[in-house]
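Notebook entry, structure prediction.
Reason for the run: the old model in the group folder had no record of what sequence produced it. Starting over properly, with the input documented here first.
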Amino acid sequence: MTLRAVTLLIISLLTLENCLAEQFSKFFVDFFVDTKTQADKVTYPYFYNGDRTLVKSGWQTLNLKNKNRIVIVCADSLESVTKEDAVDVAITNGANLSGVKHHFSKQGQAWKLNNSRGIPSTEYADKGFMTFIERFSTDVDFQKKNIIFPLPEKTVQISADRKETQSGSKLHMPRTWAPVGFIGQTTQICSFVQTGEDANNRRIVIFENGEKSLSYNFINIRGNWFLIEIERYVR
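New structure, fully documented this time:
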């Protein structure tokens, strides 16, 4: 077998592995929405701030404040972390960057929760963007200045087999823009951004009742964040 053939075979096998791997975002959302199966998605012994849960029968459910509206921040794409072997997710209460960090790892093709611990704000991996989002959510004038108009909003159709196809679009203009906010009393921010990740774009993806609903796409230009696109998902 030639070197080229071996290389193509390796690429094919890696591509197949990525296709077979459970999407991390789906696993994560299902973990908190379908809490009855949560215990099956944990590696034991499980550690939370030093406390041990040795076996499945001792599992105590982890809950979000509002599992019907899950807000996720990610770099690049929602599934960019699926290819990784391990992912840390920091869950914070809005702009309060202290919270809980959950460590997940891939077991074969499936994801499992390994351990969790409380973290101070100094350990939060994406402080710059979250500081921006706090002001973006509370200062209307600042929000308008940090949107690139005309702002496109795409309608994306999700089929039964989860394929996505753009089915429409519209443009938002400054005079008709209705402010949006991501920080609220019941809002927890789930960050997929990993320590040391330096991508110059962010997505805020909102899941309503377990289904992807909206995506707000931001880009960093010369140290400043701007909202450049919205995607609305329909079925």
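Summary: The radius of gyration is 19 Å.
The old model has been moved to the deprecated folder.
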